[in-house]
């Protein structure tokens, strides 16, 4: 402290400083998620401006674009996993899967541009591993469907899970290319996966 005075930040109790930092982080993630999900090509400077913080503050919390991208993906998947819990997965497994695809598509669509913005910053392996909690839920649903005779058993379960993962991303790519609309996508996925999985 060159002038012998404490700064306003240093004078605040540590608990308040932590709360202030958390508020900044929350604002950055909320703004980043909204911007990254709205269009491709979003810059870190745009995120800082939308969050109402300086770039120095943003980089203080997220020193690199990769760390910001990881935090945004983590926040998006927290929301996705919370939404999953609101979907009724009881009853026939094929009907439950169709409900998931239809009701979760708004989040999948929201995450489409998010994925386009972070794909250059995160490895495909990291992204796939972050999907694992949701894919394990899908695997459990498929297993239940196999046990009930609703889903086929002649294909490896891991392949069936990968097919869903790949088709969801393929639908997103088709929307980005203008060959499929967001409104068509959930029904296309339900029909495609229903045909693939049907016993």
Q: Can you give a write-up of this model?
A:
This protein is an all-alpha fold. The chain has two domains: 8-63, Orthogonal Bundle (Arc Repressor Mutant, subunit A), CATH 1.10.10; 76-199, Tetracycline Repressor, domain 2. The chain contains ten helices and no strands. The longest helix has 26 residues, at 93-118.
What is the structural class?
mainly alpha
> Total domains, how many?
2
Mean pLDDT: 87
Q: Which CATH architecture of the largest domain?
A: Orthogonal Bundle
Low-pLDDT segments, ≥5 res: 1-8
CATH class of the largest domain: Mainly Alpha
From the alpha carbons, calculate the radius of gyration and give it in angstroms.
21 Å
Distance between the termini: 72 Å
Largest sheet: none
Strand percentage: under 5%
Determine the number of helices (DSSP H or I, runs of at least 4 residues). Answer: 10
CATH superfamily of the largest domain: Tetracycline Repressor, domain 2
Number of DSSP strand runs: 0
Shape: elongated
SSE string: HHHHHHHHHH
Assembly state of the chains shown: single chain
Approximately how much helix is present in the residues? over 70%
What fold name goes in the CATH topology slot of the largest domain? Tetracycline Repressor, domain 2
Concise account of the structure shown:
The protein has 199 residues and is an all-alpha fold.
């Amino acid at each position: 402290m060159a002038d012998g005075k404490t700064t306003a930040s240093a004078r605040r109790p540590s608990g308040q400083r932590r709360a202030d930092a958390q508020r900044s982080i929350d604002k950055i993630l909320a703004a980043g998620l909204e911007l990254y999900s709205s269009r491709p090509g979003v810059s870190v400077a745009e995120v800082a401006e939308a969050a109402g913080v300086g770039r120095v503050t943003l980089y203080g919390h997220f020193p690199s674009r990769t760390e910001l991208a990881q935090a945004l993906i983590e926040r998006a998947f927290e929301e996705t996993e919370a939404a999953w819990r609101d979907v009724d997965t009881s009853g026939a497994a094929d009907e439950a899967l169709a409900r998931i695809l239809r009701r979760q598509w708004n989040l999948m669509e929201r995450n489409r541009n998010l994925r386009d913005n972070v794909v250059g910053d995160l490895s495909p392996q990291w992204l796939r591993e972050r999907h694992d909690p949701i894919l394990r839920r899908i695997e459990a649903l498929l297993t239940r469907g196999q046990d009930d005779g609703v889903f086929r058993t002649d294909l490896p379960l891991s392949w069936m899970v990968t097919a869903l993962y790949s088709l969801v991303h393929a639908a997103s790519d088709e929307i980005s290319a203008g060959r499929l609309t967001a409104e068509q996508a959930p029904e296309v996925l339900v029909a495609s996966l229903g045909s693939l999985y049907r016993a």
